[in-house]
Amino acid sequence: MDNLFSASPLTGDGFGYSTSGGNYSSPFFASFLLTPGYLEVFSAPPIIPGFENLGLEDSELPISFSATIITVPEPTSLLSLPVLAGLGALSALKRNKLSKFTHKKLEKVS
Q1: Is the dihedral of CA 59, 65, 69, 72 positive or negative?
Q2: Which of 2, 32, 67, 71 can bridge 13 by disulfide, Cβ–Cβ 3.0-4.6 Å?
């Protein structure tokens, strides 16, 4: 399993997850079939390691699979916008005050 998702089909390694009942599932894209398509390896206890060790409680069946990629902004990026805007405003105010102070100082010297 590589757990990679994209706009293209799943890879041949697919992705895996476990259920609360202790079962495991691994959907993947079977490009090696005469008619390529999606399969799911389902494993239930007792789990015997190795892909060739499917027991009576296990299965490898065709499935339909689709995924939609949704971009969700990170919460920290949403919070950082007002903070950065505030820092920028403070910086501009400080620069403005410093500029006025420097200008007055130059007037007194000349």
Answers
A1: negative
A2: 2
Q: 8 pLDDT exceeds 70?
A: no
Smallest CA-to-CA distance from 60 within 31, 32, 38, 35 is with: 38
Tell me which DSSP letter residue 44 carries: -
Count how many residues are written for the chain: 110
Which region, left, alpha or beta, applies to residue 3 given φ > 0 means left and ψ of -120 to 50 means alpha?
Answer: left
Nearest to 16 by CA among 51, 57, 55: 51
Q: Is 2 left (phi over 0), alpha (psi -120 to 50) or beta?
A: alpha
pLDDT digits (tens, 9 = 90+) for 45-72: 877 776 666 677 888 889 988 877 788 7
Bridging pattern class, strands 59-63 and 37-43: antiparallel
**Preceding amide of 49 cis, omega within 30:** no
By CB atoms closer than 10 A (0-12, 13-18, 19+), residue 83 is: exposed
